[in-house]
Amino acid sequence: MANQSIEIRRLFKIFGPQADSYLEAARKGESKSDLNRRSRHVLGLRDINITMPGGEITVVMGLSGSGKSTLIRHINRLIEPTAGEILYDGEDICRMSERALRAFRRQKTAMVFQKFGLLPHRTVLENAVYGLDIQGVARSVSERKGRYWLDRVGLGGYENHYPNQLSGGMQQRVGLARALVNDADILLMDEAYSALDPLIRVDMQTMLLELQQELKKTIVFITHDLDEALRLGDKIVILRDGEVVQQGSGQDIVLRPADDYIAAFAREVNRGRVIRVSTVMSPPLGLKTPLKLTGATTLENAAEAMVEAGVQQAAITDRHGVIIGQVDLPAIVAGMVNRQPPQSKPAALAAE
């Protein structure tokens, strides 16, 4: 069933030949460094509890070694957990039989990799339909679907090219088309855009958001870039040393960072692109303006709309069009300013 949430409960991963022997120590809070020093085992994930909403984009963010790629590989069980549950559509992926797991991977999930993962001896079209070939779908059907999705991601006319004839951004579009051809409920994207140039990266983010408006896939997106996380994520989960430090909306992360570590990430963020006008609005008293904006409008977009309309004030409505507040340009400008005093970055962040 589409649009089911992914429920991760009490998930632990310890890397090493006797992982089960050190599970209790991990549960009691032994640090990653202490466990490694004592046992030569590595604590990958500790007590992960996340609900990833169906039909939305959940971004998992963290620096190198935080456990984000380890986490995404548990969702399709490319990595076996030491303990815990991952529930989808009422079934625990961690306890699926080999046959059920194979069907789940082929029919319910698709993965987009940082290094594209294209087969160099296959054409663009042949790469796009690779998953359907594995499932035994008739080539006439798979090619029709492949051509459709290649066209949707802007690669119409490139079907007979080979990967080495394409730019990095074009290769990643092939990878995305391959994932979409399978029509899987869950799209797993592991640092999918990290190898791309900044402008191409922004283009790919825009395309993903546009496709998601229509498709409503359950997307898990891994990144180390907070700007990317804030742009893409309906929900953001921040990991550090295999543990969840904070999870919530982009506004939660920027306005209410859980600690100095996250505050250091959020300090340089363009708040105008994240914070919504509902956060800075006031009661609709003496309201005199023709401009109406929804509460979900970002401060940056609200300011642009006011300038374009030649007004200093806007009415704020809920999703049903009912006026719930008002906002003016001074309030928007104040909301865009980060008033926190500058602090030194955490050593791990400064070294990144």
Strands ordered across the widest β-sheet: 6-7-8-3-9-10
Q: Given this structure, which CATH class of the largest domain is correct?
A: Alpha Beta
Distance between the termini: 40 Å
CATH topology of the largest domain: Rossmann fold
The H-level CATH homologous superfamily of the largest domain, spelled out, is P-loop containing nucleotide triphosphate hydrolases
Describe this structure in words.
With 352 residues, this protein is of the alpha/beta class. The protein has 16 helices and 13 strands. The strands form 3 sheets. The chain has a 6-stranded mixed β-sheet, with helices on both faces. A 4-stranded antiparallel β-sheet has the order 2-1-4-5. α7 crosses α8. The protein is globular and about 65 Å long. 36% of the residues are buried. The C terminus is likely disordered.
